[in-house]
User: What shape does this take?
Amino acid sequence: MRLFLMRLRGFLKKETLQIIRDPSSIALALVMPLALLFIFGYGVNLDAEYIPVAVVSSSSGTIERDLVSRFDLSSNFDVIRVADMREAEELMQKRQVDAIIQLQPDFSARLSGGSPNGRMQAPVQLILNGIDANRARLIEGYLRSIVRKWVESRQVQGEAAAGPLIAISQRIWFNEGAESRNFMVPGLITLIMTLIGILLTALVVAREWERGTMEAMLVTPLRRIDILLGKILPYYVLGMLGMGMSVMVAILVFDVPFRGSVTALLVLSSLFMLASLGFGLLLSAAIRIQFVAAQVSIVAGFLPAFFLSGLIFDIESTPLPIQIVSHIVPARYFITISHTLFMAGDIWEVLLPNGLVLAGMSLFFLTMAYKKISKRLEK
Amino acid sequence: MDSLRRILALVMKEFVTILKDPKSRFVIIGPPIIQFFVFGYAATYDLENVRYAVFDESRSALSRELIAGVEGSGKFRLTGYLEDERQVAEFIDQEKARLVIHIGSDFEKQLQVSKPVLVQVIADGRNPNVALIALGYLGTIVQDYNKSLVERGLVQLSGPGLQLVERSWFNENLRSRWFIVSALGGLISMVVVMILTSLSVAREREFGTFDQLLVAPFTPGEILIGKSLPGIVFGLLDALIFAAGAVYWFAVPFRGTIAALVVSLLCFIVAIVGIGLLVSSLSMTMQQGLLGAFLFIMPAVTLSGLATPVENMPMWLQQADLLNPVRYIIVALRNIFLEGADLYMVWPYVWPLLIMSCVNLPLAAWMFRHRAV
Amino acid sequence: MTEVKNDTSQVVLSASAVCKEFPVQGKPAVKALDQVTLAAHKGAVTGLVGADGAGKTTLIRIAAGLLIPTAGKVTLLGLDSVEDSLEIQSRVGYMPQKFGLYQDLSVMENMNLYADLQGVAMGERKERYGRLLEMTDLARYTKRRAGALSGGMKQKLGLACALIKSPELLLLDEPTVGVDPVSRRELWKIVYELVEKDGIGVFVSTAYLDEAERCDHVLVLHQGKLMAEGAPEKFTATMKGRVCLVTPSQKISGRGLYTRLAGSRGVVDTTIRSGRVRAVLGAADPSVLHAVLGGLDAEVEVVEPHFEDAFMAMIPRGHDHVEVVSEVAPDNAPTHAAKSSDALVHTHDLGKMFGDFAAVKNLSFSVKRGEIFGLLGPNGAGKSTTFRMLCGLLPASSGEIQVAGHDLLKSRAQARARLGYMAQQFSLYGQLSVAENLSFFGKVYGLYGKKLKERIGWAYNEFSLGDWRDTSAFGLPGGYKQRLAMAAALLHEPDILFLDEPTSGVDPFARREFWLRINGFAEQGVTVVVTTHFMEEAEYCDRMLIMSQGETLAMGTPAEIRDLAKSPQNPRPTMDDAFICLAEGRVPVSQHGNGGE
Assistant: This one.
């Protein structure tokens, strides 16, 4: 036992000194996550603001002016008033506006005048640039909610008789403003931890093979468990540091709410970190060349975490085979966990099953890595 | 003449090295195609199978009709009928449903007397994008249902209502797959070109063969041409295959001109080759080259506008993004595919790429000889 | 030693019928070791010698428990190398060829690490460290990072780490490769001290044949088989009367003599030593030499044999043993080795700074047409830096360089066309076949069509590469890689040949072959600039420059350099002696230009 502790201490000290002295692992573990967090945090934003729209309104009645001023006041739109449709279409062609809102010349007459059969309607025409379908839908949604609020306020003032028959009163729980940053930033933390866990461990072990230090290690009385622990602990600490830092930035800089408990975050992120580290070690036990290790860890670790974790694209909307494949990606489970912890709180019905899967995965990867670590040169 | 022969020998050598090694042959063919299809299918903002639950206190014919309308849209999947208000929290909290539609007990009664009625929808905001899009779908469904109520005369409209009439240009059904897939090819071929070129000089440096080239009577320009051509050829080939795949496999319309497509892709690939070679000529080892490529690819892709619109970013980032070659090709490709752009119309996106090439390529050539230890 | 050997309790390492095969895809497995049976004893140094690929490293790795033998058994200290590898690893010190020092860690931190891993008790450390640091003379550098140590110091630190827990057996795999003569001598001193004071057993593999002579017992491996074993004296005894030194005369130069003898029947091996040609004969009959030397007035003296002579005579040469150098003289070069006075390569006050570190200081020399000029010195002396500056690969910080009238860094590309360059490590395109490599380099230097075909044909002949033309360069055996690299450098018939450490990591056979060739090209008028850290190779140069830590230690002909170390005790010093004298400052550093301008 004493010898075991001594060996472990020596090994850990060496890893720590190496991490401290080698700027590249610090960069990889601490600087890159922050850079990524800022790039993604600012760059990936699905909320649109100041969308240029052309408003075509030939009459200048008070009702029209009132409605158009609502568009103007909204921070979602940047209104460009044009006299006729031809001009608006030209702007759209030149991509200077993303949508055209057209009010018919008899808009106010129709709206206030009513009609004998009571079925007459005042149409607001919306023409969208559909190239970015997602954006088009957002514009439609924004317009709809502005119009609805306008109608409601008219009803309150008694200016309008009735609004739509069935209206939706929507409430978005956990994220009232539906801010995508609250969603993106916790997800990014998951990506960053994947990166540290897999890339760093895979590279570090491959580097020892390339520099010949591994051979010298193997002939010392180190046991396999020493190697496993010695490689996991420092990078676990480093990864958790990177995560802690990212969480601080998320809360302090990006104003993301954190509603769960720190203990739950610690426990669950440890499980995820261990799964990533185990996967990285497993890769490194098989790959002894840094170049290949980097490629494999990006292709097998990072890209799936990016595309198949549900962060950028909704998994449930993808074809079935892709959904099935996504179940072997650890990041998928941790993304669910981190979103719940940040926005919803300690909901154990969500955290527990996902946490158990992660625990199972880390156990699997670590045992596999332990089995794969060989004290011989041959594989 | 001698110069031409030397370049030819170098180009031949580059092609043989790339194509002879099964691993690098695979890198330019295998993963790109897999990525194209996986991401082509995975990368969509259109929702399907959105899990929802209904808490119907009205239990009336009309409320059932509304729910049937939701069910019939094909976008939603029912996961539960709630009996109790408390279950709402349970379903949302535990992610059993992403939306709960709550229909009040007075739903039918109010409608029969033509009074407006509210339907409450609770959405899980943990994924706000999904929540907003799903709410948008619901809004359309409810609007259609309103219209049908009036048209069938089941409900009298007391006064004139406001009606939103919408029409989309270029992508009539608002399919986001068109939007993603039309530009995806450019992105993936960029990754291929970046990896190929960022390793090309670094590998020779690591194996010491670059010294051989520098000692040989090559001018830096000749080495540059020899090193660029394979990247350009493979990148363009990949990109054109993906363009064909988008049209013939994913059925994305192609409304522009072939000339515009080829010219803008070519300019883009040359610009990327310039960056790749610059990264490569700055690196002493393949690892550094790969890291450099990764450092470029990550932000370039993130800020390219492929997944999220450039316009949504803060102004300072949008301005910095003017240096990102990927953003130009993404806009250009979308314009060519969906808007029918010709050469004249894509020119604003082509000239920045040309300028980037003119800066990066000579810089890389200069680095060949001056970055040496 | 013989009395010790019979006592089995003294055996620290024994191998019985050990075989090791490495699987090769699609081909029959490579037999690295074939039925090797041997023993090493306590209190003795057992040397393992053999050419590249003989199986030395494989054997040591099996002993260290890093590889599992395909058949047979290796026992260390009575323990099985496979079953008890953990126990063995705590009682045996092992130093791999490329020792696993952590470059980012300081000397002391490296030692601490290995002490922790080996479980050396805290109380014992101080004393142990003190002894090891004193022995290795590293006490002054404990805070320095391992990466910043010189090659020799790194090896000594590696040895110290391997010795951290006073092992009962020490396994050393080529511990002195690339180490300067001074450090080599020190390493051996440490090894002897351990054997004498602690009585441990040492099992060492080496490529330096002179080191074999320092062992108590020598094992000769050849192609995976144990060829011979015994005390070095036993080997040299068989060579009595078969080694002669031939002194060049007025009628024939040393180099001419060397070329002539190398191809002669009955001569097994030729080298240049201290200005004379050392010839090893197939039989103890010097009369074969007289037949060759008839009328040349060359004086023949029978001398004491060395282990190297025995080794060279014992190992069968492959069929591809180099023939006489090509008759085809490069047609552009002057056929006579006219040592015209025009300096083809010239530097003046050349300096190179890397940050604050001066890698090369005030270097001035010039090389004349048709000369072989050697840049000598241990690893890290600044040879490669100088070399890269000469070739235009690295800008100089100060001073001037002219190669054939140009500064290659600034001159037009065409100025480089008359240059041949062979880099330190094998640096041709590994994935390309021999034919593709040759054709590429030919075209790069403006050869095409018939001329290109003709030159490639010449290369196939000259370097016996014809059979390998479709093999990828990575797949070539070591010696052939060397040949291919040289063929590529010579394809365009350059006037000047730059060779950077062409013999580093090459076995004695390939080295001899190589120098024979270089000699031939120089005879044909090619100017050769060559770097090496093998001091004895300096003998093949016309003139040379010895560097150490960026400074010029001496410059001149081999004889002039050797004379610097001449003393009553040592009337015929070797190059090694000269280097040691120079490095230890026993000789005033020669004035530059002494032998140069």
User: Anything to note?
Assistant: Chain A touches chain C at residues 3, 6-7, 9-11, 13-14, 17-18, 21-22, 208, 211-223, 375-378 (CB under 8 Å). Residues 115-119 of chain A have pLDDT under 50 and may be disordered.
